[in-house]
Amino acid sequence: MVNLTLTEKFLEITQEAPEKVAILYRVGDAVQEFTYGEICRTALKVAHWLRREGIRKGDRVALFLENRPEWCLSYFGLLLAGAVAVPLDVQYQAEQLKYILNQTQARIIFTSSQAPLPELQDFASLEKIVLVGEDGPCGEKGVRWAEVLDAAGATAPLPQAAPADLASIIYTSGTTGPPKGVMLTHRNFCANFSGIAGYGYITPEDNFLSILPLHHSFPFMATLVAPLFSGVRITYLDTLKAGPILRCLKEQQVTILALTPQVLQHFYNGISQRLEQMPLGLGGLLDLVLALSFRLSSRLGFNPARPLLAKFKAALGPQFRFFISGGAKLPVDLARNFFKLGFVVLEGYGLTETSPVVSLNPPEAPKIGSVGRPLPGVEVKILEPDAQGVGEILIKGDNVMPGYYRDEAASREVLRDGWLHSGDLGYLDADGYIFLQGRLKDIIVLSSGKNVSAEEVGQHYLQAPAIKEIFVMADPKEEKLVALVVPDLAYFLGTGEADIQGRIKWFLDLYSRKLEPYKRVRDFVLLHQELPKTRLGKVKIGEARELYQQRWEKRFQAKTPAPVEDLSPLGKQVISLLVKKTGSPQIALEDHLGLDLGLDSLALVELVAALEQRFNIAIKDEEFSRFFTVAELIRYLEEKEPGRVPAPEEKEPSWSDLLKAEPPPPLLQKIDLAPGFPARLFTLGFSLLFGLLFKLIFHLKVSGKENLARQNYLICPNHASFLDGFLIFGAAPLSLRYQLFFLGDSIYFELPVIRDLVKLIRVIPIDSARHLVEAMQASSYILKKGKMLCLFPEGARTITGEVREIKKGVAVLARELGVRVVPAYISGSFQAWGPGEPFPKPYPIKIRFGRARSFAELAEKGRRLNPSAKDDAAFTLGLRAELQRLKQEMEG
To answer: Domain residues for 535?
Structure first.
């Protein structure tokens, strides 16, 4: 049994090397240093001040502070005074504060100007409020930090703590109910530190960056107690922004960073997006090389891709050693992705009730997917394991709490026969490593008898760069999984993609392919606010379920319209325009233009054109893409033209008007309508090369070439693969290839060398998500000149292999220009190189060109499917039906 106290260890370590730097505090570009001797002297001053204020052994003192040196100094000061610490989340609202402060009857609280100071004045139990920092009023009970430190003279000898004495009462997150106060003793914490120290992963040169909130037990142990008692440095920041964190890692020579899986996922998404933006599939090639090298490293004893990894590691500095992941389960794929990039992530497992660490992956032998081996002095066993060895994890050791504060019933429920019942499911492998399988309360039991871990499924979908947060649950009415999804608006700003609903569905379908059918999310609603979470990223389950139900029901409920009487004349005109565009009489200020009003890319272009005419202003694409809600749109227009009176209402600009204009000169220069001999020669060589490759690798067969005539028309194929554009080019008769143009994403085709080459084969590079009008004008220009244009009417590759819904853009071009449409179906490209596959593989491919159809013909076909569909919608239905008919003909 451990017989040590936190105060004994604190005094011992601070007096061993008093001149050594213990804490760095970075505020902007300024860095403050605190030595071990200074923090000891300051903590003693705090202790004596508390004793002078009447604090006695066992009294509760609250810490309501953000991460900063004073958190550490106050904590050890109150322990030295014999008090019990009550750490609080600085984001607590009045109701949560009232609950905890009333239960603990804390007499003194340490806080800062970031906390709601006026509300604290009203708590009767609080006698003093110590304000850290120089800003803000103190109030009646207030005492400034400087006054505490300036208090002269020592009081009577400080009380001696015993190992069994309470050190902290840490309140759990309360994800499914009111928070419970976990009582943790000096022995609990010291036993946990001893077990961590036994792993020997901390070296004398280490510097921990502390960014997770210290009121939680995981960062408290991982980024305060463990490094401090090991005699190394701790760095605090005054911001949580990514830029300053990365700069601090390098400039302050940080070696270890503890994060939650949620933060690690965002970190990796940034890297992944950069890989995806590399041209010509180079990002996929690099990713494949890194993955193969990582697999080989276990056999070779070194990573053969080490030179490639230097670029990734340079972002954190050469001194950086590893991440520590805790607070939630780390997805296996995410851990593997970090390791293949050359970063080490040591995953651990624990609960607040275990002070908190139960297990940790040893640095010399980490197992991806495991949370490591139990610490020395910690026993773990599996209760009633099933055939796979999975059961509830039980824990015993000096690190286990004595119980919950003033809640004997809850204590008896989890503490039975000397074992803590964790509520977590898992198993032990032959080497003693723990593998988590979800929470008992998190397991969804389907009527089929299948068990699904909602957390595991959610973590899988979080790999999608367009998804910022996701909460997975069972549908309350049907046998399926559903999700509440928070889109990553930074991703959509970066890509210019306006169809948020469609893009999220695309990613959900993509990542569903890697899951068993019963684990796939079948329906979802979008939320344009953060999920309700604890500070460590755990979703508050009850609140999230309510939000899902509210968003689902919102589809069928009448909305509260915007208060027109409170709007400016400009705001009223905007609401009027939106009513006309959407056909909905109920427009709310908080409505999202895409999620709630259903405005897709083309509808947003039409809205911008109408706004420009109505208010006689120019709206740049990059400006318009920065806002998402009706209120933001109105505010943007009011700031752009304050006091402007709307022009008299006139006929709104149409696509006919927009398409009359030629594309901008820079884009026009990329269109070569009369290819010379070099371009024709290049096309010939390109055709021969690809024709040979397609026959050898894919056994390409083409039918319906007779439907391709020498006239201007749109070729509209289904889209399942990166191969599709090249296949259509290779399938067209050679005599027509000189007249056939394609639109290509500028991400892939705007590099200097490639730009010159693609012009020879008539690919027009443009970011159509950001510059849709220019893309439509370029398409119109090509068709008006009597050329042929290949457009993929689905807009994005299919994930399932089935034809997706047709976008409205092709309908606009066919209607306004009177050009005919040649549907084409490509069979086999999905299997040859589908979404998510790094490289193509041999597979038979067939292409069938259908008969050229007019806008009226396809619209009539669509109206037979849906008599109420209007012209453009009927056209898209008709074109999709024609593609499906071609597919059936090929398969029949």
So the answer is: 443-554
Q: Which helix (H) or strand (E) holds 350?
A: strand 345-350
Residue 268 amino acid letter: Y
CB 700 within 8 A of CB 731: yes
Same domain, 306 and 161: no
Q: Are residues 291 and 278 in the same domain?
A: yes
Average pLDDT for residues 545-561, to the nearest whole number? 74
Task: Assess if residue 559 is contained within a domain.
Answer: no
Tell me what pLDDT residue 302 has: 66
To which residue do tokens 């309510």 refer?
546
DSSP 749-816: H-SHHHHHHHHHTTEEEE-TTT-HHHHHHHHHHHHHTT-EEE--TTSS--SSSS--PPPSHHHHHHHH
Q: Are residues 671 and 642 in the same domain?
A: no
Residues in the chain: 892
27 pLDDT band, cuts 50/70/90, is confident
**Distance in angstroms (rounded) separating the CA atoms of residues 625 and 622:** 5
In the chain, the number of structural domains is 5
Amino acid 502 reads: G
User: DSSP letter at 277?
Assistant: T
Give the separation between CA 239 and CA 550, rounded to whole angstroms. 34
Distance from C-alpha of 213 to C-alpha of 222, rounded to nearest angstrom: 11
Buried/exposed code over 701-725 (b: 16+ C-beta within 10 A; e: otherwise): bbebeebbeeebbbbbbbbbbbbbb
520 within domain boundaries: yes
Of the pLDDT bands very low, low, confident and very high (cuts 50, 70, 90), residue 207 is very high
Domain annotation covers residue 192: no
* Domain end among 653, 681, 709: 653
Round to whole Å and give the CA distance between 338 and 43: 39
Q: How many Cα atoms occupy the beta-carbon half-sphere of 434 within 13 Å?
A: 32
- With beta carbons less than 8 A apart as the criterion, state whether 238 and 69 touch: no
Question: Taking residues 22-27, what's their average pLDDT?
Answer: 92
Q: What is the CATH number of the domain that holds 289?
A: 3.40.50.12780
pLDDT for the residue numbered 151: 73
Residue 319's CB is within 10 A of a number of other CB atoms, namely 14
Q: What is the 3-state secondary structure (H, E, C) of 180-192?
A: CEEEEEHHHHHHH
Residue 741 in contact with residue 749, Cβ under 8 Å? no
User: pLDDT (tens digit, 9 = 90+) per residue, 485-511?
Assistant: 999 887 887 777 778 888 898 899 899
Alpha carbon distance 46, 491 (integer Å): 47
141 and 259 in a single domain? The answer is no
Q: What pLDDT does residue 275 have?
A: 65
**Which domain-ending residue is among 381, 407, 439?**
439
For residue 261, is the peptide bond before it cis, meaning its omega torsion is within 30 degrees of 0?
no
Query: How far is residue 13's CA from residue 642's CA, in Å, rounded to a whole number?
Result: 63
